Amino acid sequence: MGHVVTLYGYAAFGSLLFILISISTFCLETHEAFNTIYNKTENVTVGNVTREEIVYEVVTDRWLTYVEGVCVIWFTIEVFARVIFCPDKAEFFKSSLNIIDFVAILPFYLEMALSGLSSKAAKDVLGFLRVVRFVRILRIFKLTRHFVGLRVLGHTLRASTNEFLLLIIFLALGVLIFATMIYYAERIGADPADPTASKHTTFKNIPIGFWWAVVTMTTLGYGDMYPETWSGMLVGALCALAGVLTIAMPVPVIVNNFGMYYSLAMAKQKLPKKKNKHIPRAPQPGSPNYCKPDALAMATASPQRIMGNVLGNMVVSGSMAGDCPLAQEEIIEINRAGVCVRVYPCVYMFVCVTYLCTNRQGRSWG
């Protein structure tokens, strides 16, 4: 058992290491220090005219491609191992993390298969696959298998769906209202010769005011758009205050959900780990107890039931040794003893019930 736990720990560490390496190579591939620009000449046919054109192609350093290939091979082995040993294949393919695994490794194999083709359709598909390389960043979600905090965050987001929906609705209403208000407020005092007010304001229409309203309500304030009239400044102040109040309302509920799930996760980690109970083997063919009901029952019975049977046998044996039949009250007490032992499946209770029986010589035993 210890070897299995150690092997699982090594596999988890390897998976975590390859995830970090894959994400690092994904980021480094976009840096100009790891890319080389090549000029290629291609024949382009337009109608009946064929001419040569210079095409610029960006090629990533090969060692990054090799590192990514090793990571993809590891992830492929990991995915197929989980598919093979998963008892419920339907539930496996319903998991979002498993879908992410497939989506993240598929573009690499398609790109390798199409890289040797020279047809225009293959090049178009290859260009599309290079664009969708961003799905590799989804591997960051695989870290939730190894970090409790990320799992707690995921449970919190799922439990706070209603609060997030309420926040989005409030923000959408505020954005629509304040974008409309800033559009008309900036036209107060505009030059009559400029009906669009494009000379003194950047709010030329309501849709462009959506961006300003979102930035202002979330208190980001990039400064690329700002009101220039006193009426527009008043609308901007109201928009900022409304955004602070709107965002502050659902935040305490989300924080409470996070605290609750985090406390549960910490309490679960402190619980003692379950140990595999030793289950005695059933009698095998050729055994003296083979096919005997008592032997089969004892081999498959729980420890509590065995303890109850032992207590009952002790009382019965004592009564027979004293040559005194058990009374009805004593039989009831035996049943109660057995029930008391079975009521608590996680606690071993040794129940001792005193039975008195007077034999013919007037002696009592207990």
TrEMBL record:
<dbReference type="GO" id="GO:0045211">
    <property type="term" value="C:postsynaptic membrane"/>
</dbReference>
<keyword id="KW-0406">Ion transport</keyword>
<keyword id="KW-0630">Potassium</keyword>
<keyword id="KW-0325">Glycoprotein</keyword>
<keyword id="KW-0631">Potassium channel</keyword>
<dbReference type="InterPro" id="IPR027359">
    <property type="entry name" value="Volt_channel_dom_sf"/>
</dbReference>
<dbReference type="Pfam" id="PF00520">
    <property type="entry name" value="Ion_trans"/>
</dbReference>
<keyword id="KW-0851">Voltage-gated channel</keyword>
<dbReference type="GO" id="GO:0042734">
    <property type="term" value="C:presynaptic membrane"/>
</dbReference>
<feature type="transmembrane region" description="Helical">
    <location>
        <begin position="206"/>
        <end position="223"/>
    </location>
</feature>
<keyword id="KW-1133">Transmembrane helix</keyword>
<feature type="transmembrane region" description="Helical">
    <location>
        <begin position="63"/>
        <end position="85"/>
    </location>
</feature>
<dbReference type="GO" id="GO:0005251">
    <property type="term" value="F:delayed rectifier potassium channel activity"/>
</dbReference>
<keyword id="KW-0407">Ion channel</keyword>
<dbReference type="GO" id="GO:0001508">
    <property type="term" value="P:action potential"/>
</dbReference>
<keyword id="KW-0812">Transmembrane</keyword>
<dbReference type="InterPro" id="IPR003968">
    <property type="entry name" value="K_chnl_volt-dep_Kv"/>
</dbReference>
<feature type="transmembrane region" description="Helical">
    <location>
        <begin position="235"/>
        <end position="264"/>
    </location>
</feature>
<keyword id="KW-0633">Potassium transport</keyword>
<dbReference type="GO" id="GO:0008076">
    <property type="term" value="C:voltage-gated potassium channel complex"/>
</dbReference>
<feature type="domain" description="Ion transport">
    <location>
        <begin position="12"/>
        <end position="263"/>
    </location>
</feature>
<dbReference type="GO" id="GO:0032809">
    <property type="term" value="C:neuronal cell body membrane"/>
</dbReference>
<dbReference type="GO" id="GO:0032590">
    <property type="term" value="C:dendrite membrane"/>
</dbReference>
<feature type="transmembrane region" description="Helical">
    <location>
        <begin position="92"/>
        <end position="110"/>
    </location>
</feature>
<keyword id="KW-0813">Transport</keyword>
<dbReference type="InterPro" id="IPR005821">
    <property type="entry name" value="Ion_trans_dom"/>
</dbReference>
<protein>
    <submittedName>
        <fullName>Potassium voltage-gated channel subfamily C member 1-like</fullName>
    </submittedName>
</protein>
<feature type="transmembrane region" description="Helical">
    <location>
        <begin position="7"/>
        <end position="26"/>
    </location>
</feature>
<feature type="transmembrane region" description="Helical">
    <location>
        <begin position="164"/>
        <end position="185"/>
    </location>
</feature>
<dbReference type="GO" id="GO:0043679">
    <property type="term" value="C:axon terminus"/>
</dbReference>
<keyword id="KW-0597">Phosphoprotein</keyword>
<keyword id="KW-0472">Membrane</keyword>
<dbReference type="InterPro" id="IPR028325">
    <property type="entry name" value="VG_K_chnl"/>
</dbReference>
